[in-house]
Amino acid sequence: MKNIYIDDDIQEDISLNISNEIIGNTNKYYINDTEKEKYVENITKIIESKIYNTKKFTSKYKSILYNIQTEDVIIRMIDNVNISNKSDILGLIKFNINQYMHISVDDYVIEYKIINQINKMAKIQVILFPKYLIDLCKSISKNLKIKSQIINVNYDILQKLIELNLITNLESNSLFIENRNEEILFNKVIDKKICESYILSKNEQYLNYINNLDEKIDKVYYYGIEDKSINNEINSFSSLNVSPLNLENNKRSIIISNQLGEDLKKYINAIGMII
């Protein structure tokens, strides 16, 4: 039986300045070396001050897991991909991306999932993860002298919770809203598969997104940082069935501390990473 414990003290926001320049028709993201070094040093100090001084554990942590989904993480659905030859799929994805997006695919690690398949044709979900973020995580782990175990994307964690049937009263067609400090993350789920994932700013943009949902959404689940004004705005959509996201306890050989109570919504991603 795995007990899930959350150390509520480790919560810090440190911004990182990521520059953007256009080379030809391609957007290029880069981090100033000085800024990166300062950022890694600050993160290292914060984590070290918490995990090495805590009295709740008798030994050092052996691994660190990262949970990242920013505007630079690109998630797209591509229809009608011929998957008869698996060795050709990545090339077809790159060709499609280059046709419609002004980015250099060499700056990304590309992963994909087959969502629906009819004979040799399939709908594919593509994730482009910036290499600079991977490099950043490796630098933090190196400074901490802790093994970097895995880099998680928010939507992937949510999909795992859905597939493990850990979400209480889950409807097949749902909208998941994750409230964060500066923005809101939307994941639209159709037939228990995430088909869209967007990060929107906290302005009319996210309200317009909810207002213009094109598929029938049976339920809206929200989680993340508690924000009464955001919750009130979401609940103002009378046509939507809105509720906080809750997890089924004592499933998959895990026990989530009852002390978390209402705070459970803040730690959905952390719990999803380790189960």
pLDDT under 50 segments (min length 5)? Answer: 20-27
Note the overall shape: globular
Q: Care to count the β-strands?
A: 14
Structural class: alpha/beta
Spatial sequence of strands, sheet with the most strands: 11-10-9-12-13
Q: What percent strand?
A: 25-35%
Which CATH top level class of the largest domain fits?
Alpha Beta
Q: pLDDT average, as an integer?
A: 76
How would you characterize the largest beta sheet? 5 strands, mixed
CATH topology of the largest domain: Nucleotidyltransferase, domain 5
Order of helices and strands: EEEHEEHEEHEHEEEHEHEEH
Number of helices: 7
| N- and C-termini, Cα separation | 11 Å
When the domains are counted, the total is 3
**Could you say what the CATH architecture of the largest domain is?**
2-Layer Sandwich
Evaluate the radius of gyration: 20 Å
Helix content: 25-40%
